Amino acid sequence: MLIIDTQPVVYYSQLDEDHFFAWAQEIPCIKSIDCGYLHIQESEVDEQAMRDLLAILERYRLSAKPLAALCTPENESWFKDKDKFWYQDVFGNF
After folding, report:
1. In the chain, what are the helix, strand and coil shares in percent, each to the nearest 5?
2. Three-class SS state of 40
3. In terms of Cα–Cα distance, which of 85, 2, 87 is closest to 44?
4. pLDDT 10s digit of each residue in the chain, 94 long?
5. In degrees, to the nearest 5, what angle opens at C-alpha 93 toward C-alphas 39 and 46?
6. Which helix (H) or strand (E) holds 32?
7. Residues contacting residue 40 through CB under 8 Å, at least 6 positions apart
8. What gap in Å lies between CA 83 and CA 55, rounded to an integer?
9. Residue 39 in 3-state DSSP?
């Protein structure tokens, strides 16, 4: 289980916070949200789920570095594309 800390998130309103958690709960690979931590089932991260994770982390300015652990031979061709907006956030300094 990959765990991502959401504590650094700054919410600008109650509705903003509500939307974050509603969005997170819609991503199928996120199995639970507990005390501000997203619990991600790695075996359920397909391309769409990865793109959703990248989007929510980018939108709420959370570090995407933990997602590097989800790089596999199956997704490496697009996930490690140096031209993608997330590349530096996920793989920079590795």
Report:
1. 45, 15, 40
2. strand
3. 2
4. 999 999 889 999 999 999 999 999 999 999 999 988 999 999 999 999 999 999 999 999 999 999 999 999 999 999 999 999 999 999 987 5
5. 35
6. strand 30-34
7. 1, 2, 3, 4, 29, 30, 31, 53, 70
8. 16
9. strand
The pairing of beta strand 30-34 with beta strand 2-5: unpaired
DSSP letter at 13 equals S
Helix, coil or strand: residue 43: helix
> Which amino acid does the sequence have at 13?
S
Query: How many domains does the chain contain in total?
Result: 1
**Nearest-CA neighbor of 20 among 6, 39, 41, 34?**
6
Contact in structure between 51 and 71 (CB atoms under 8 Å)? no
3-state class (DSSP) for residue 38: strand
Six-digit token string for 15: 């509705």
For residue 40, give its domain range. Answer: 2-91
